[in-house]
Amino acid sequence: MKGITGLLMLLTFILISCNNETNSIAKFKRDFPERKQPKSFTYSYINSKEFKLDSLKESELDIILGVNRMDKVNLKKTDSILVPTDLSGDIAYYMPYPFEVKKLDSIKKIIFFSYQSETFATYEYGILTHVGPTNMGKETAMTPTGLFFTNWKAKKTISTVNDEWILKWNFNIANGLGVGFHQYELPGYPASHSCMRLTEKDAKMLYNFAEQWVLENEDSVKIKGTPVIIFGKYDFKAPKPWLSLKTNPNALKFSEDELEKIIIPHINEIKKEEKIRDKYNANKS
Questions:
Q1: Distance (Å, rounded) from C-alpha 155 to C-alpha 103?
Q2: Which of 185, 207, 219, 236 is the most exposed place for a label (fewest CB within 10 A)?
Q3: From CA 177, how far away is CA 148, in angstroms rounded?
Q4: Helices marked H in the chain
Q5: Which of 211, 208, 217, 219 is CA-nearest to residue 152?
Q6: Residue 17 pLDDT more than 70?
Q7: For position 75, what pLDDT does the model report?
Q8: Does the pLDDT at position 47 exceed 70?
């Protein structure tokens, strides 16, 4: 009888523990953000001098900057711009990323940079949370691809390549190579010296989104930061890939399966580093 009672108590404890663990995981999972879908996904070329950029709502301007992979200053300089017929939707509908990636549903935070499409995206527990344009490395100074982790950050720093380059909202991801993401001009094509350029708004967002590393000492990293995957190739001899949106609005879209194939080679390392950080944070508290 005592044995049966003990077994029942053990089973009860296990069930409670499992339920508590499930609830703990569930409360950290993100809900899908509310997004308005545009009625139309058609695009046309418009003379930038005739287009009244200053009269647009902030959300509409963000979409046009995203579609053309430019900042506002460069957008005004160019002859023609690609403009969606319907600007009423959420910017995520105009970018190439899937709204959910189930392979990431246990990963707290991750950042993607697509070389081919010149865009970036953030996911939290597998849910797309932010997207935007980027301009990456030019042909003579290409951005390295693969898995990285955010290192140190600075609201303002000077480039190690040229001391005239002021990098705002800079977050390093490859300390030895001097590669990171930061605010800088976006001319609408890969133009950087291997870094990932962003609009000021997006640079600030990622600056606050990602976590810094924790150093054991000057030569050793104790805790790595937020995972960053840079993927794809840019064809420097072909027209800008996003110009194909005029004839095919889905030309640059990534399916969930395609993104999962990019993630799979790195998922074990990402999970391992996340466990190390979680243990470190738990010990701190």
A1: 33
A2: 219
A3: 12
A4: 2-28, 58-68, 72-77, 200-209, 256-263, 267-284
A5: 211
A6: no
A7: 93
A8: yes
